[in-house]
Amino acid sequence: xxxxxxxxxEDLPFPAGFTWGAATAAYxxxxxxxxxxxxxSVWDTFSHxxxxxxxxxxxxxxxxxxHRYVEDADLIKSLGLSAYRFSISWPRILPSGEGGxxxxxxxxxxxxxxxxxxxxxxxxxxxxxxxxxxxPQALQDKGGWASxxxxxxxxxxxxxxxxxxxxxxxxxxxxxxxxxxxxxxxxIGVHAPxxxxxxVAAAVTHHLLLGHGLAAGALRAVTxxxxxxxxxxxxxxxxLGSDAPEDxxxxxxxxxxxFNGLFLDPLLYGRYPAHALPEVxxxxxxxxxxxxxxxxxxxxxxxxxxxxxxxxxxxxPARLLLGEAPALPGLDGVVQFDPAELEHTNMGxxxxxxxxxxxxxxxxxxAPGLPLYITENGCGAEDYFGTDGxxxxxxxxxxxxxxxxAAARAVNDGANLAGYFVWSLLDNFExxxxxxxxxxxxYVDFATQNRTPKASAGFxxxxxxxxxxxxxxxxxxx
Length: 478
Ligand code: FCB
Known about the structure:
Number of strands: 16
Radius of gyration: 21 Å
Strand content: 15-25%
Oligomer: single chain
Shape: globular
Bound molecules: beta-D-fucopyranose
Number of helices: 15
Structural class: alpha/beta
Distance between the termini: 24 Å
């Protein structure tokens, strides 16, 4: 399989009109946590709780993009990108999370209007995410996404934003990665709000999806015809050797249903997947008449965040070998493993571009005709300035190059891919890792807020300009 991505000696083209963008999220870049009337979110609370984020880092200042958005818009333009995916901070718009008379923080809306105008002046198309994890703390205090009411409050907030900004925004993403919110935030507790409760995580899963469905309906009611509405999922292809026996095929079905089907099936088919682990499935008592119809209303596109797959093989979860991890509970005699021939990023994440290729083809088969956008893909690395004053982030170039080759091959083989957004435009607050992990194609010096495009920014700008990805080098420099 690796041969397929290393052997070709030609540029691989992308379709005409392909979108080339970069992505960020509000809490990771804006800073200005208490400026302009913003209320606290669960991430303010979490990051200010000792021991939750590496180094005690918070998003209080982050990249200060709230004040430096013009410079950031200039950066995007200087790279020749056609699109920018950013998120709106819910508590900047509704500081208490709820709408109603006098609740809207006009200064928050005005900030996003200024940002959208700055993008429009530079010919950059916005793709706006409405929820990238910053639930208003005031709503968390009332139960957060474990409570059905939060889905209704989310739709209320989305309709405020849609009405105010709808004339400036062609593309909306309702939610970013509901799986990560439910799992990391409510099952294993490594993200805000830091809960560790399977039942809560299952309820959160349903309420996030319901929030998506209601928000999509709210947007369609208040935004101009032709506005695109979609959702972004973190998808984790499950990979097996081609001669995998039936017990591994079964393990793969359960794992795929628990990670991916749990979100894809209700969105695409209006039902939860039969094969998922019982403990991740929302209990029937939570699902009211009409919920699944709202959740499965047609999407204009699906946003795909791809970082890494999981590989399964036979093994003993009680005696893990090096490079192995336990598979999901109940899958006897099966382990996850990292194939020895594949490298890792400095997040410890496996680098496996074939996973992206498989995923894009599978989605195009499961949802024929539905446009796909890669809304995030990228690499955390140890970046620093060389003596020549350049950030020569070869690992990131290699990662992007390999994944863009995989994406181009998928398009060539029939995947319905409309665009690619690199994660991320800027080094930023990487959630529980704080500022220790750098994902940007632009280096941020957090002491001075100076921004410097890395070598990967040049590489990526070249791909965008050519609308094609060059052949992989026969050998990478060391
Ligand atoms: C994704 C998140 C994004 C960023 C990347 C590295 O799960 O959506 O905000 O942190 O991971």
